[in-house]
Write a structure and sequence with these properties.
With 227 residues, the chain is of the alpha/beta class. The protein has helices spanning 2-19, 38-46, 57-66, 85-91, 101-110, 140-148, 168-187, 203-209, 218-221; strands at residues 28-32, 51-54, 73-76, 94-98, 118-123, 153-159, 194-196, 213-216. The structure holds pyridoxal-5'-phosphate (PLP). The site of pyridoxal-5'-phosphate has 13 residues, from β8 and α9.
């Protein structure tokens, strides 16, 4: 089932790329395996998937340990508290959810010398929800400059989690704002190559707006049982 759903998601991505006049390999697929066990990740890997996203740091570390025999790439896409930065710095390849300099500084200080720099994105609160995590768009440039200067981090881009939109056009409008901010930061010389946006429900709109990485859970693994 996972193999077939992965295939369907890859086909959706390819169709959306074609519709947007983009190359079929312009968009990377991150499989979001939160709440699913190591067996589900193993099945997805057997079907050709290597990059996995997780929200809950301890849950992810348990899976990383159980799957050590596979060449997987792990992306942290959930909130990072100060007391969890060491696990992220030591065990992950990417963190998409940076929104505070203090957390970025800890990750850089705790990233082991033997590993390549931690690849990071700034999470941007693109639709302005007052209680949402993510840096405000107006503060993204200053934070990006500060993070780009940290020695053991490599700033790759921006990540967004907009509120669910009622239709394609509404989703597209919000994703376009993220794309505009991404272009603005690049015009300031930041050399970003990753725009992490689009989930199971809105990947087509995200790709139309210029997403380079979609984070897909439900469409690959099925519905999650709420915690
Ligand atoms: C859960 C989650 C996803 C995947 O969402 P689906 O709707 O299941 O595809 C993507 N990004 C983040 C940050 C998530 O927490």
């Amino acid at each position: 089932m996972i193999a077939r759903q992965l295939q369907d998601v890859r086909a959706r991505i390819a169709t959306a790329c074609r519709a947007a006049g983009r190359a079929p390999d312009a968009v990377a697929l991150l499989a979001v395996s939160k709440t699913f066990g190591a067996d589900a990740v193993r099945a997805a890997h057997a079907a050709g998937q290597n990059a996995f996203g997780e929200n809950y740091i301890q849950e992810a570390v348990d899976k990383i340990d159980a799957l050590r025999d596979l060449p997987l790439q792990w992306h942290c896409i959930g909130p990072i508290q100060s007391n969890k930065t060491r696990l992220v710095a030591e065990r992950y390849d990417w963190a998409h959810s940076l929104d505070r300099l203090k957390i970025a500084e800890r990750l850089s200080a705790q990233r082991p010398d033997g590993l390549t720099p931690l690849q990071v994105c700034l999470q941007v609160n693109i639709d302005g929800g007052p209680t949402k995590s993510g840096v405000a768009p107006a503060e993204a440039l200053a934070l990006a400059r500060a993070v780009a200067a940290l020695p053991r981090l490599k700033l790759r881009g921006l990540m967004t989690i907009p509120e669910p939109a009622p239709d394609f056009d509404a989703a597209l409008a919000v994703h376009r704002r993220a794309r505009a901010l991404f272009d603005e930061l690049n015009a300031e010389g930041l050399a970003l190559d990753t725009l992490s946006m689009g989930m199971s429900a809105d990947l087509e709109a995200a790709i139309a707006a210029g997403s380079t990485l979609v984070r897909i859970g439900t469409a690959i693994f099925g519905s999650r049982v709420p915690k």
